[in-house]
Amino acid sequence: SFWQWPSFDERRLWSPSPRCRPFSSPRANALLLLAARATLFLFVAVAASESALHFTAQSGTGTYAIFLSNQGQWITVAYLGVATLLVVASMTGLFVLGLRRGNFSYVDIGWSGNFMLLAVFYGLYAGGDPARRLLIGTMYGLWGLRLAWHLGRRIVGEPEEGRYVDLRRKWGAAGPAAFHRRMYRFYLLQAALDVVLALPLLWVAQNPAPSIAPPEWAALAIWVVALGGETLADAQLAAFKRGGARHDEVCDRGLWSWSRHPNYFCEWLVWVAYALASLAAPPWGVFGLAMPALMLFFLLRVTGIPATEAQALRSKGDTYRDYQRRTSAFVPWPPRR
Questions:
Q1: Using a CB cutoff of 8 Å and minimum separation of 24, what contacts does 49-54 make?
Q2: What is the pTM of this model?
């Protein structure tokens, strides 16, 4: 049947054998096939719901107005369902690729690239004002594309990044199969974060108001500054590495002389811009303020600064400790002498 899961040998999916080709596992194939079928089904449901929504909007009776409200709730659920299937399919494919290559750094490319995927989907189908869908879709999509491209150049064809080497060492004590299961759950967690963090995108893209509101113009201005700052910080770091810097040297030039993580700060500003745009999309848009708070927590306490600085201290030692002493960790600020 449509929902039946085929029989499989679980060891084949988690096996690190080089003979394990992408999508050769019955379980991986079943997951992707199920995602494709369910996505197609929900796309049809969304299209049908949207048609009904537009039809009832032309009627002026109270009965149809109630139906319109309920229909709007169901269509939002359908959007979220399709979005979840899209990012799960994306992350599953990248997990199998990482399994074959022995490099799970691909999760970073997937996390950022999925925002471009969701920007295209919501931008095309969310049903709000076309100009607003284009605006918020461009803001999410270009940021996700730039970050995915930047990370891809750093990850593809290179050894596994230090953060994932550490996770391999910590999680691998129970054996390869247990490690691969835990890493797959980590990939799925990143997929869930994609869907949650893209909620402002959905809320704004569903807003039918006919003109762009002042908070949305302000959000665009912040987004331009933040994207430019993040791009500049990445370019300055790349130029430093190309200049023949020794392994124990620290980039303390340009934006990096004012913040140890100017790229992370500018990335957080991008999420501030998304939250500001969502304020113009009642009633749920106010909850968009939680997204920069969540991103700040992850950057400061979980996967951003702590992991990066731990790796820098291991590789650069006292040179990096001196850099920590004189340079702000996050918010750009004049360096201490």
A1: 49/74, 49/75, 49/78, 50/75, 50/125, 50/127, 53/127
A2: 0.76
Q: What is the residue-wise DSSP string for 63-84?
A: HHHHHHHHHHHHHHHHHHHHHH
Residue with tokens 């080709």: 21
Q: How many CB atoms lie within 10 A of CB 12?
A: 15
List the pLDDT tens digit at each of the 337 positions of the chain: 333 333 333 333 333 333 333 344 455 455 555 545 544 554 444 444 444 444 333 433 333 333 334 445 557 788 898 999 999 999 999 999 999 999 999 999 999 999 999 999 999 999 899 999 999 999 999 999 999 999 999 899 899 987 888 889 889 888 888 899 999 999 999 999 999 999 999 999 999 998 999 999 999 999 999 999 999 999 999 999 888 777 788 999 999 999 999 999 999 999 999 999 999 998 888 999 999 999 999 899 887 898 889 888 988 999 999 999 999 999 999 998 7
> Which residues fall within 8 angstroms of residue 228, CB to CB, at 6 or more apart?
none
What is the four-CA torsion angle of 278, 284, 289, 291, rounded to 10 degrees?
-90
Distance CA 168, CA 178 (A): 11
CB contact at 8 A, 254 and 127: no
User: Number of C-alpha atoms within 13 angstroms, CB side, residue 225?
Assistant: 12
| Cβ pair 123, 133 in contact under 8 A | yes
* Pairs from 232-236 (Cβ < 8 Å, separation ≥ 24): 233/262, 233/263, 233/266, 234/150, 234/263
Neighbours of 154 (CB within 10 A): 15
Which spans in the chain are helix H? 10-14, 26-57, 62-101, 106-125, 130-155, 162-171, 176-197, 199-205, 214-242, 262-278, 290-297, 305-316, 318-326
The residue type found at 289 is: L
Contacts of 59 (CB under 8 A, 6+ apart): none
